[in-house]
Every structure is written in C-alpha cells, then in structure tokens.
Design goal:
binds orotidine-5'-monophosphate; globular; 13 helices; alpha/beta
Length: 265
C-alpha cells in the first residue's frame, strides 16, 4: 500500500494525527535501559508498545542512531523491523533531511526504502528538483520536503524575498505544481510558525499533507496549528512524549488535544 493510503488508514483507525518521534538519546534514558546492549531499541520498543493505538505514524530521526555508529544503525533497523512486524498498519517516516546530486540520492533512497523499508523520508530541496528526482520516482513512498522549518533561525534563508515571494513560499509552490507528478510529495511546516503555515496552505491547497514538528518541547501551539493548517496534517512530538513519566498518557493527551481542535471549524 502506498504511503498516503497507509497514513490515511492509520489516521482513521486510531482517530489520530499524532506522530511520535523516536529520537532516543542514550544520555537521557533510564539507567536500567541505558546499560543494556541495545538501549535505543529497548527504549523504542516500550514507547511503541505504549503508543501504537494512539498514533498515525512513527518518525525516527536518523541522527540519534547514526551518533552510535554501526550499533545505532542496527538499532534503527531493529526499530523499523519491530514496527513492521508488530504494527504493520502504522507508517514509518525516516527523518534524515537528505539531499545531494541524483547519483548520491539513489543511495540514500536505497538505505531508506530497500534496507530499512520505511514508508516516507524527509528531504531538503536546496539542490533542486532534478536532484530530488531519485526520491520522487519512488511513487509509493512519501517524499516530505522541508518548506518552513520549526527552528528559531528558520527565517534566515527561508524568509528571504525571491522574485517578490519568500523563499519558503517558492518551495511550497514548486513542490505542489512541479514536483508532485506522482502525488507523493508532502511538506515540512513547523508548528512554531502558524502564520507561515496559513500562507503555505493558501498556495498549495487543502490536499497537500504537512508534516508538522514543533509541538511539545519546541512550544508550538496545537490550536494555532490546526487553525492555520486545517486537518491534513501529521503532527509530530518526540521529547514531550518519549521522556514523559507516562508516555502513553502524554500521547493520549496530545492526540485528544489535536482532535479537539480538529473537529472545530
Ligand atoms: P521534538 O522537538 O523533541 O518534538 O522533536 C522534533 C523532531 O522533529 C526532531 O526529530 C527534529 O529533527 C524534527 N524537525 C524539527 O524539529 N523541525 C523541523 O522543522 C523539521 C523537523 C523534521 O523534519 O521532522
């Protein structure tokens, strides 16, 4: 099943737009987990089992695994395999924000789609469509393009005026009109920038799905996000859920809060 259909089915089944970010930092794990041979995988397994009925997707960020070298990559693979085996209805988004010349992107795509078997990836658009084509050609996968990010310095380049329009709006427009021939593009739009999100929604229309990081630890507002972005969202939270005293409760609260504003016009 292609990413968008899988996502839509998971959103319906779990009545959820919440995506849990699997970003485990060994330094922050409980000591009894941190000392085990596979701390990231053991930690993730518990988070996944606790939240699988509450989410529409999981998003492991590759950095947290790459930081541990070969052992970390193995734990990323085990995490993906665990979701695929035990919760096959839940799509996996690999957050790696890659992008390079096409020949190199072929190999990033092979890592994500052939080795890990994930359903979607995040990519950066700076090198243009021809470079990203290696990802776009994977028709059944979600290709999630950075558009307006959630970090404090996001505007340094993204807000620059280019041809009378801010750069992030140019990205939104290009992706929607020129990159999306296979219907497999999504955009990353941070929850910390609701006004920008509303402007992007105006340009790309209601069908384009946004991956929205920035709620929870980064302070993005759920109500403002839903008002600006409408319902076609995947709303990610990592630290605020995975390090909560009770991750299941934290995920339930986040999902329910999202649903409260989702149902308001
Ligand atoms: P928390 O701040 O812990 O919820 O984690 C946010 C996650 O979303 C991290 O994996 C970030 O790398 C990622 N992210 C952002 O925080 N901001 C962005 O603009 C884009 C992403 C992303 O592509 O997911």
């Amino acid at each position: 099943m292609d990413f968008k259909r899988k996502l839509s089915a998971a959103q319906g089944k779990n009545n959820s737009l919440l995506c849990v970010g699997l970003d485990p930092d060994v330094a922050k794990l409980p000591t009894q987990v941190a000392g085990t041979p596979q701390p990231l995988f053991s930690f993730n397994k518990a988070i996944i089992d606790a939240t699988a009925s509450l989410v529409c997707a999981y998003k492991p960020n590759s950095a947290f695994y790459e930081a541990r070298g070969a052992a970390g990559i193995e734990e990323l693979k085990q995490t993906c395999a665990y979701i695929q085996e035990h919760y096959p209805d839940i799509p996996i988004i690999l957050d790696f924000k890659r992008g390079d010349i096409g020949n190199t992107n072929n190999h990033y795509a092979a890592f994500a789609f052939d080795y890990l078997g994930v359903d979607a990836v995040t990519v950066q658009p700076y090198q243009g469509r021809a470079a990203v084509q290696s990802f776009l050609d994977h028709k059944d996968k979600g290709i999630i393009v950075l558009c307006r990010t959630s970090n404090e310095g996001a505007g340094e380049f993204q807000d620059l005026d280019t041809d009378g329009r801010k750069l992030y709006l140019q990205v939104a427009d290009k992706v929607a009109k020129n990159w999306n021939a296979n219907g497999n593009c999504l955009l990353v739009v941070g929850a910390t920038a609701p006004a920008e999100m509303a402007a992007i929604r105006q340009i790309v229309g209601d069908d384009m799905i946004f991956l929205v990081p920035g709620i929870g630890a980064q302070g993005g507002d759920i109500e403002a996000t839903l008002k600006a972005g409408g319902p076609n969202l995947i709303i990610n939270s990592a630290r605020a859920i995975i390090y909560a005293g009770n991750p299941r409760q934290a995920a339930t609260e986040a999902r329910d809060q999202i649903n409260k504003y989702r149902s308001q016009p």
